[in-house]
Amino acid sequence: MLDLFRGRLAMIRSGLPLGLMAFRTYRNGFAVMRALVGGRQIEAVRRDGSKVTFHSDREIIFDMLSQRNRLYGKDFAVEFEGTTAIIDKRFRLVDAVRNGGIYPIFIRDCYRDLTVEGKIVIDIGANIADSCIYFVLRGAQKVVGFEPFPHNYDIAIRNVKGNGLADRINLVMAGCSGKGGRITVDAGTSNTMSQAENLQVGATVPIYDLAHIVSEYGGDVLKIDCEGCEYDAIMAASNTTLQNFQQIIIEFHHGYSGLKRKLEDANFHVSHDITGYWASRKMLTGHILATRQGPRQQIETITQ
Q: Which domains, from first to last, does the chain contain?
């Protein structure tokens, strides 16, 4: 119960700067702010008098970003040209207003606790490569990004090649789970909230487990934001596989307790924060940050 209260409180706190943005962007800013917190449908009236109906908080955020000329985070400035975001006047991210995580990644700096300089970063849920580019800007030696949805992957390729980062970022059109295989996904999906569910019709892409990813690509730091795949991927991984990483950050969507116990058992120091609770979806969201304690250990996982 306490976690649910913290989730609601975190949503209110994180929503305050967005609420101020809503007042500046819309004539009915107070109603938009309530819809933003509660996830309700709202007809917003922009300052120029035009009207638009939103069905989710993400639609509101994307529209507000598209109406702004520039946003500032602690270390990055973000400008907008239509649906393209420009980071520090240098790096252009196509489709970043309608998709991706520009606000949490570059403005709120949600990966600030990761030490990536000179490291190989494995990015599960690369989306449009916004997080991949963030890690490069933070000094990562190399980023290997996994994205199962073809539309997002195509945009990611454009963003990586368009910014001359193909030598630093390797993109793989694949998902991650507790065991390898193949999955059929919606080829046209283009948002960050999509889960890789097996469909009857669509694009068939490979699924890798963490053991395969470590064996094939290595990695010092692991980031997972895959709208639910985090549970199968982490819980099925051996302690030896997890110990390959110095740090692991996971965005969780349905609670953290099992993930926390698993990582602590693998000799990680684990902390977490809670970012939201959506009662209608029964979703408790937040981040887990796990830091390996001491040098890598060969821990055998015993199965019965």
A: 2-106 (no CATH), 113-292 (3.40.50.150)
